[in-house]
Specification:
The protein has 874 residues and is mainly β. The protein has 4 helices and 63 strands.
Length: 874
C-alpha cells in the first residue's frame, strides 16, 4: 500500500477554509533515496559505521583546523520551536512527573522540567547521538542511560544482517548528573563496512535497569541479543552473536525481567528465539514462549502491568520475507501472559478487527512504528501504538477504541501519526504521553471512548529534520524562510526569530522549496513530485498537476526569473510552467530531456538555461527554450556518483561548483571557465589519512563586491572557506550552536549575507556572512534577533553571567533559575528601555549556597523564551 497525500488542494484556491490532512511517505522510499545519494557506488549501501567515522573525522578536523571565524554564537537556531522531528525515546523522572527526558533520532538528548511545556537540550552541539531509548537508574535517580541507533529508520529503512544503514548509532551513554554530561559506556565500535564485529551496539532497541542482590545491572536489547552491564563489564545474557537476531526487547517489572528475541533479518531462527523471563531474586533465564507463537517474528514489543499480573506481547512478521524492504504487508499478533498461572492467551483476533476512522486496518509500516502500554491502575486497559493508537478496556477481547493518528489534521488536537512509545508519568494515571514522528504529544483523556484530544508538547524541542530550506533572495529586508521537513511537511516563518511559531504551508514529507518573484510566489513540494504554489499571503494558488509522478523521493524544483517559469525535474525530463500576475499556464510543457535514463537529482537555473546533475554522475546543460541538451564531458565525475547540489555563481556564469554526496568519493568539483577544465576542491573535507571523509550535501557561494565566501553543508556540520583549491582549508561554522548536526540544505542572500542552514535533527539555523571577512568579527547579531548567550563561566563554582540580546526595548525581561526537578530557586526581573545586550548576574548569593549539580535557567521576554543548562561544581 502506497501512502500518499490524502488532501487534494492543488487545483483549488480555498486552502484557508480547510484543515489539511496528509500521510507521510513509506520509510522504504526514503531509504532508497538516501542509499543513492550517500552510499558507496560500488556496494550501493551506506557504510555501516558512517556515524562513527564521521564523529572521529570531525574531532580530527576541528583539532587540526582552529577556526579563523569570530566566536559563532550568532549562528543561531530559528526553529521551528513548535514542530518537532521523529522521537523514539521518552522517560519520566520517577521523582517528579514534570521532569521528562527524551531524544531525537538525529537531534540529541533533551529535558523538560514542566511536563513538556518547554525543553532544554542537554547534549552539546558537538555530540549528536541518534537516541532510540532512555532509562533512569533505579538506585541513583541522578543517573540516566541512553541507547542509540534505529534498526528500522525512516531515513535509512533497511538494516540487513550487515547493518548497512546510516540509522545506526554510536553505542550506549550514561549521565550521572541528571543529563548534563554524557559519556559512552559501550565497547568501542570498530566495525568496517560489510562486517559485523561488535556491531551490536550500533542498534539499541531498548534499555532496562534492575536491582539485583549484588547491585544494579543495566540491560540493553541490542542487535543480536540482550547484554548486561555491571558498571565495569558487559556480557551477553541472551542471544547468539554468530546468528544475530534482528530485533530484541527487554523490560523490568517488579521482581522480574522479561526479554524477547526475534528472528534474524532474513527470517531464519537463531539458536535462542521467543519470550524469556528471569527472577531478580535468583536463577537464570527461562523460556516461556507460548504454543502457537509466530515461528518467525521480526519485531517483538513487550509491556507489563504495574502490578506485574499481566504481560502483553505485540509481534510483527513480514508476509513475504523476500519483499520485507519493498512491502509493508505484515502479520501481527498480540498475546497475554499471566504469571500467576504461567499461562498464555492469544489476543490476536482483537488486532485483526482494528480500524481507524478512515477504515484502514492496523499498520506498523513493517514494524517501524510499534508501541505498547498498560494503564497503571488496570491491567485490562491496554494501548497499542502503530500509525495510530488503539485502546482496549477489556484486555483486548472486544473493546476497541481509536485514540488518535489518522486522519491527521495539523494543529487541531490530532495525534501525529507513527507512534514509537506510549508512557504514563509516575503517579499520573490521567495523562498519557506519546513519542511520534512529530515529537511528543499528551492527552488527558486516556480512557476516552470516542477519541482523545492530543496536545503537542514541542515548544523548544527543535529536532526537525530538514530536506530543504529557502529564503527571499531578492528582498534584503525580508526575514521570510520556508523549509521542507522529513515526516512533517513544509513550514514557514516571516520573522526568522527563535521562539516565534512557524506556520504550516501544506505537504506530506516536505521536500524542495523556493521563493520567487520578489517573494510574491512560493513553491513547495512533497514526495515524488507533488508540487503546490502559494502567494505572498500564503494563499494556495490554482496550479495544474504535474504531467506525471517522479521516481525520485525528493523531486527537484526550481524557478527561472527570466522565463517566469517553474522548472520541475521528473526522472530524466525537465518541465516548465509559466507564471504571470498570480496565475499559471494551463498545463506543464516539456522543456528538455536528458538522452539517458538518468535521474535528475539537482538543478541550477538562470536565463533560460538549467544545469542538471544526475544520480549517475553526469552533468548537463539544458536550454529550456530550445530543448538542446549538452553533457559536460570534461567533468571527471566518478561513475554512479550522486550529484547533490550545483552552485552557479551569480556574478560569473563560468564558475560552477558541483557537490557529490556519496561517502568514499571526492566531494567538491569546480570549474572557473564554464566547464573546459575542472578541479577537485574538497580539500580538508575529503578523505584524510584514515581513509574517510564526511558526506558533503551542498556548497553555496556568497558574492559581494567581487569577493567570495563559500559555505558547505556536510554530515558533520557547516564549514566556510574564502578560496577553493585542492588544499582548501575549510573552517568550522557555528561550533557552539550548530555543532556537528548534519546540514542538508543551505540558502544564501549575497546582498546582505543572510544565510540559512537546514539541519537533519536540529531545525533551521541562521547567520550573516560577509565575503572577504573570514578572519573578522563579521557575524554580529541582527537587530531583529532575540538571543540568549550561554552562561559564563561554564561550569561555575559560585557565580554566572548570562547575556541577553534584545532587538528593542520595552517589556519585562525575566530570568528564572530551577533545580533539576523543576523547582524554582530564584528569579530576576529587568525593564530594558532600549535595544542591546542586557546582562544578568547570578551572584554568589544566588549560587554559592546551592549544591553542585545541574540547574535549568529560563529567560522570558514578550512572547519569547529560551532555556539552557547551568552546571555548578564545588
Amino acid at each position: 500500500m502506497k501512502l500518499v497525500l490524502v488532501f487534494v488542494l492543488i487545483a483549488t484556491a480555498t486552502a484557508q477554509q480547510t484543515t489539511p490532512q496528509w500521510k507521510e511517505a513509506h520509510p522504504y522510499e526514503r531509504w532508497q533515496w538516501d542509499c543513492r545519494r550517500l552510499g558507496n557506488p560500488q556496494t550501493g549501501r551506506v557504510p555501516p559505521d558512517a556515524a562513527i567515522r564521521d564523529a572521529a573525522f570531525a574531532r580530527r578536523l576541528l583539532a587540526a583546523t582552529p577556526s579563523k571565524m569570530a566566536p559563532l554564537t550568532t549562528v543561531q537556531p530559528i526553529g521551528p520551536t513548535n514542530v518537532a522531528g521523529r522521537t523514539r525515546a521518552l522517560a519520566f523522572d520517577r521523582r517528579s512527573a514534570q521532569v521528562i527526558m527524551t531524544g531525537g533520532v538525529t537531534g540529541g538528548i533533551w529535558r523538560s522540567i514542566d511536563g513538556g511545556s518547554t525543553w532544554v537540550r542537554m547534549t552539546p552541539p558537538t555530540l549528536v547521538p541518534a537516541v532510540s531509548c532512555i532509562v533512569q537508574s533505579v538506585q541513583n535517580p541522578d543517573t540516566w542511560y541512553a541507547g542509540t541507533g534505529e534498526g528500522l529508520s525512516t531515513t535509512e529503512r533497511r538494516t540487513s544482517t550487515l547493518l548497512r544503514t546510516i540509522g545506526t548509532g554510536t553505542g550506549i551513554y550514561r549521565s550521572t548528573d541528571n543529563g548534563a554530561h554524557w559519556h559512552s559506556i559501550s565497547p568501542p565500535i570498530t566495525g568496517q563496512p560489510n562486517a559485523l564485529p561488535t556491531q551490536a551496539w550500533q542498534i539499541v532497541w531498548r534499555l532496562a535497569v534492575a536491582a539485583h542482590d549484588t547491585g544494579e545491572l543495566l540491560y540493553a536489547a541490542c542487535y543480536g541479543g540482550i547484554y548486561a552491564w555491571d558498571g565495569a563489564r558487559w556480557h551477553l545474557e541472551l542471544g547468539d552473536t554468530a546468528s544475530p537476531a534482528f530485533c530484541t526487547e527487554i523490560i523490568a517489572v517488579g521482581d522480574r525481567l522479561y526479554a524477547a528475541i526475534g528472528v534474524r533479518d532474513d527470517g531464519t531462527v537463531p539458536s535462542q528465539y521467543g519470550i524469556f523471563v528471569r527472577s531478580l531474586r535468583g536463577g537464570g533465564w527461562r523460556q516461556i514462549t507460548p504454543a502457537g507463537f509466530p515461528p518467525a517474528a521480526r519485531r517483538i514489543v513487550l509491556a507489563a502491568s504495574a502490578d506485574g499480573s499481566a504481560l502483553y506481547v505485540f509481534t510483527q512478521t513480514p508476509r513475504s520475507w523476500s519483499a520485507r524492504y519493498s512491502s509493508f504487508a505484515s502479520q501481527h499478533t498480540l498475546w497475554l501472559y499471566q504469571p500467576a498461572t504461567d499461562s498464555w492467551v492469544d489476543r490476536s483476533a482483537w488486532l485483526n478487527g482494528l480500524k481507524n476512522p478512515q477504515q484502514s486496518p492496523l499498520e506498523t509500516l513493517g514494524g517501524y512504528c510499534m508501541a505498547l502500554a498498560v494503564h497503571p491502575q488496570n491491567p485490562n486497559v491496554v494501548y497499542v501504538g502503530s500509525t495510530d493508537v488503539f485502546l482496549s478496556l477489556d484486555g483486548c477481547v472486544a473493546s476497541a477504541i481509536h485514540l488518535g493518528g489518522y486522519p491527521y489534521r495539523v494543529e487541531s488536537g490530532s495525534l501525529h501519526p507513527d507512534v514509537h512509545a506510549l508512557v504514563f508519568p509516575p503517579n499520573s494515571p490521567g495523562q498519557l504521553y506519546a513519542a511520534t514522528d512529530g515529537g511528543i504529544y499528551r492527552t488527558t483523556m486516556p480512557l476516552a471512548t470516542n477519541g482523545a484530544w492530543w496536545e503537542a508538547l514541542n515548544d523548544g524541542l527543535t529536532t526537525t529534520q530538514a530536506y530543504h530550506v529557502a529564503l527571499n533572495r531578492a528582498v534584503p529586508a525580508s526575514r521570510f524562510v520556508i523549509a521542507g521537513f522529513q515526516d512533517n511537511s513544509n513550514w514557514y516563518t516571516s520573522s526568522a526569530t527563535y521562539g516565534e511559531p512557524w506556520s504550516f504551508a501544506y505537504g506530506g514529507d516536505g521536500c524542495r522549496v523556493l521563493v520567487a518573484e520578489q517573494g510574491k510566489l512560493i513553491v513547495a513540494s512533497s514526495q515524488f513530485g507533488s508540487v503546490y504554489a502559494l502567494d505572498e499571503r500564503i494563499n494556495l494558488l490554482s496550479m495544474p498537476s504535474p504531467p506525471r509522478s517522479g521516481s525520485a523521493f525528493v523531486t527537484e524544483v526550481a524557478y527561472d526569473e527570466s522565463l517566469h517559469a517553474v522548472i520541475l525535474a521528473l526522472d530524466n525530463a525537465l518541465y516548465r510552467l509559466g507564471y504571470a500576475n498570480g496565475s499559471f499556464d494551463p498545463a506543464w510543457m516539456q522543456a528538455a530531456v536528458i538522452p539517458r535514463p538518468d535521474l535528475i537529482t539537482t538543478l541550477a537555473v538562470r536565463d533560460g538555461i538549467a544545469l542538471a546533475g544526475t544520480a549517475d554522475g553526469r552533468l548537463y546543460r539544458c536550454n529550456l527554450t530550445t530543448g538542446q541538451v549538452e553533457q559536460f564531458t570534461a567533468a571527471p565525475i566518478p561513475a554512479d556518483a550522486f550529484i547533490a547540489a550545483i552552485d552557479w555563481d551569480e556574478a560569473d556564469p563560468r564558475r560552477i561548483i558541483v557537490t557529490i554526496s556519496n561517502y568514499t568519493l571526492p566531494s567538491i568539483l569546480a570549474t572557473w571557465d564554464g566547464g573546459a577544465t575542472w578541479q577537485w576542491v574538497g580539500g580538508s573535507l575529503d578523505e584524510d589519512s584514515s581513509g574517510w571523509g564526511p558526506s558533503v550535501r551542498v556548497v553555496h557561494s556568497i558574492v559581494q563586491n567581487g569577493k567570495r565566501l563559500y559555505v558547505a553543508g556536510t554530515s558533520i556540520g557547516a564549514f566556510v572557506a574564502d578560496s577553493l583549491s585542492a588544499q582548501t582549508a575549510w573552517q568550522p561554522l557555528g561550533l557552539t550552536t550548530l555543532g556537528v548536526l548534519p546540514v542538508e540544505a543551505i540558502d544564501v542572500r549575497s546582498s546582505d549575507g543572510l544565510t540559512v542552514l537546514g539541519t537533519h535533527g536540529g531545525g533551521i539555523f541562521l547567520c550573516t556572512l560577509r565575503a572577504g571577512e573570514l578572519g573578522a568579527d563579521s557575524q554580529q547579531p541582527s537587530p531583529s534577533d532575540f538571543l540568549v548567550e550561554s552562561p559564563i563561566p561554564t561550569p561555575t563554582t559560585d557565580y554566572a553571567l548570562i547575556r541577553v540580546h534584545l532587538p528593542h526595548g520595552g517589556g519585562a525581561l525575566l530570568l528564572e533559575l530551577y533545580d533539576a526537578l523543576g523547582r524554582k530557586l530564584s528569579e530576576q526581573r529587568q525593564q530594558p528601555s532600549q535595544a542591546g545586550v542586557v546582562p544578568f548576574l547570578l551572584a554568589p548569593t544566588d549560587l554559592g549556597e546551592l549544591p553542585a549539580g545541574t540547574y535549568i535557567y529560563r529567560v522570558l521576554w514578550e512572547n519569547r523564551k529560551a532555556s539552557g543548562v547551568l552546571i555548578k561544581v564545588r
